[in-house]
């Protein structure tokens, strides 16, 4: 438009990318509704907790010594 202007300036410097820690999770196949979802570690770091995204059935996978290294489970 006549009489209006927009000045843009960049010195070419890019901001440092924000580094976020990966949130630990395990994969769960909920047999109740035949659906897959992730559940995430709780704040106390004692278990992975979540629920079925369709019927809201709760599930908990405890963390402890002598456990498994598996990252995928099925909730029945």
The total count of strands amounts to: 5
Main β-sheet, spatial strand arrangement? 4-3-2-1-5
**Approximate helicity band:** under 10%
Major β-sheet, in short? 5 strands, mixed
User: What is the molecular shape?
Assistant: elongated
Q: Give helix and strand order, one letter per element, not per position.
A: EEEEE
Provide a count of the helices.
0
Distance between the termini: 65 Å
Strand content: 35-45%
Indicate the low-confidence ranges by residue numbers: none
Global structural class:
mainly beta
Radius of gyration: 23 Å
Rounded mean pLDDT score? 89
Provide an overview of this structure.
The chain is mostly beta strands. Helix content is 0%, strand content 36%. It contains no helices and five strands. The chain has strands at residues 25-30, 35-41, 47-51, 58-62, 72-75. Strands 4-3-2-1-5 form a five-stranded mixed sheet, with no helix packed on it. Strand 1 (25-30) and strand 2 form a beta hairpin. It is elongated and about 70 Å long. The N and C termini lie far apart (65 Å). The mean pLDDT is 89.
Keywords, please?
single chain, 76 residues, mainly beta, 5-stranded mixed sheet, 5 strands, elongated
Compact overview of the structure:
This protein has 76 residues and is mainly beta. Helices cover 0% and strands 36% of the residues.
Secondary-structure topology with pairs:
Blueprint: E1 25-30, E2 35-41, E3 47-51, E4 58-62, E5 72-75
Parallel strand pairs: 1-5
Antiparallel strand pairs: 1-2, 2-3, 3-4
